Amino acid sequence: MLFNSLDFAIFFPIFFVVYWLVAKKLTLRNIFLLGSSYLFYGWWDWRFLFLIAFSSVVDFSIGKKIHATTNEAVRKGFLITSLVVNLGLLAYFKYTNFFIDSFISSFRLFGAVIDDYTLNIILPVGISFYTFQTLSYTLDIYRKKIEPTKDALSFFTFVAFFPQLVAGPIERASHLLPQFHKTYIFKYDAVKSGLLLIAFGLFKKMVIADRLAIVVNQVYNNPTDHGGQDLIIATVFFAFQIYCDFSGYSDIAIGLSRALGFDLMKNFDTPYFARSITDFWRRWHISLSTWFRDYVYIPLGGSRKSEYRVYLNLFIVFVVSGLWHGAAITFVIWGFIHGCFIVAEKAATNYGLIVKRNTVFNGVFFTTFTFIIVCFAWIFFRANSYSDSIFIVSNLFNITPDFKDFYQLGLVSHEFNLALITIVLLLLFDALHRRYNAIKLLNRAPFFLRSFVYVSVIYTIVVFGIYGNDSVSEFIYFQF
């Protein structure tokens, strides 16, 4: 079920009313919330409900067993069992065909001919997200940071919580799980704030991201038909498409949760105003970057090891992050690029090669440079194949003399101009929000001004939103 679908537009109001009718009865509320979350997830394919239920049973049981024993070997054995089960399922559904293709390709390098063989494996929506969420539960119990819950219903609901189930934010059990042990009362301000976030999220998704996707899809699906200027336009458009698509989803998830009384972590913080790749990853997909920091980088030794080991640890994290996003060499290259710049920035800092002067020129220069690097890496993230990505990179500056074909990339002139306008408005909003917290400013504004903004956002979604286009309506991160 998509947040921007008619199905969800019918589902959520009914759910919302019933939820608040039973909200004071904790067990009944959690039963209703779990059943609704399973309905939401099963809307795609009910068979995958068994998978998420199985994962919940495994980690709920193992969490209790880890806590119940003081024998370190036994505790580690249970943890390894959780890792093998969860990562094994993830690897099977996400990487089996990648390993088969890599195996076949390696033999072809030596002249051996092996027939292509691909399994018909359907990737369960959101498996990467809820797998990491349940793993953090058992890992934190093993580290003695939290104690296991005795309430199976709360744990199952924590794993399947529908607002953030399929694309995050990836919540820690220490933050979200205790919230299922509490009852909430209806608060008008919280519900209003949540609905406003939902509206902004839908605006980002339907008005900006889905419109940009039309251009991006046309160019990236047929890169050899386009010159350098088209490739540059499509790459920049993709940078804003994926930002608005994913941050829009996060806004909706946080808004839905807030309207129900729950609090989710912030997942984006104006990432395209970052002044370095390191700064970018403090602002982009925060729940994932902090997950890799806590459960991959620190266990590898973090910053406690020698200088070169620290560089290696950072590099490993970003290559693994690339693999987490998808089973393709292009995602590995994307992670490789980010890892190289992260390591270079760390080394430059260690050797005093970066002079931090807070001037307007430095701010504009480093922000622009960071954005260019991020866009370059997005080429590999978005390209349909390795060969396509190499073609795009090789032809970025193969500029053709006819600039009028901007209006022949899937959007007519006024639609293309609207896409540019919304990007500018987004950047202005992010700049305002970065400096003054735009949401708080809006809440303090006079009633007529707030009402004008609310009505304008809703009107823009209704009139200028993209509807009925299956190729652009699904959220990008559903595939991960």
Residue runs with pLDDT of under 50 for 5 or more positions: none
Number of DSSP strand runs: 0
Classify the helix fraction into a percent range: 55-70%
- Shape call: globular
| Relative strand content | under 5%
Return the structural class: mainly alpha
Radius of gyration: 23 Å
Overall average residue pLDDT? 88
How many distinct domains?
2
Measured between the Cα atoms of the first and last residue, the distance is: 16 Å
Largest sheet: none
What string, H for helix and E for strand, traces the elements in order? HHHHHHHHHHHHHHHHHHH
What's the helix count?
19
TL;DR?
This protein is an all-alpha fold and 480 residues long. It is 69% helix and 0% strand. It is built from 19 helices and no strands.
Indicate the topology.
Layout lengths: L5 H17 L3 H17 L6 H20 L3 H37 L18 H16 L9 H9 L12 H4 L11 H33 L7 H32 L17 H7 L2 H12 L9 H19 L3 H22 L9 H23 L3 H9 L18 H24 L1 H7 L2 H18 L5 H4 L7
Helix pairs in contact: 1-2, 2-6, 3-4, 3-5, 3-6, 4-5, 8-9, 8-16, 8-18, 9-14, 11-12, 12-13, 13-14, 14-15, 16-17
What can you see in these coordinates?
The chain has helices spanning 6-22, 26-42, 49-68, 72-108, 127-142, 152-160, 173-176, 188-220, 228-259, 277-283, 286-297, 307-325, 329-350, 360-382, 386-394, 413-436, 438-444, 447-464, 470-473. It has 2 domains: 6-186, no CATH class; 190-479, no CATH class. The two termini are 16 Å apart. α3 (49-68) crosses α6 (152-160), α9 crosses α14 (360-382) and α14 packs across α15. The chain is an all-alpha fold and 480 residues long. The radius of gyration is 23 Å and the shape is globular. The model has no long low-confidence stretch (mean pLDDT 88). The protein has 19 helices and no strands.
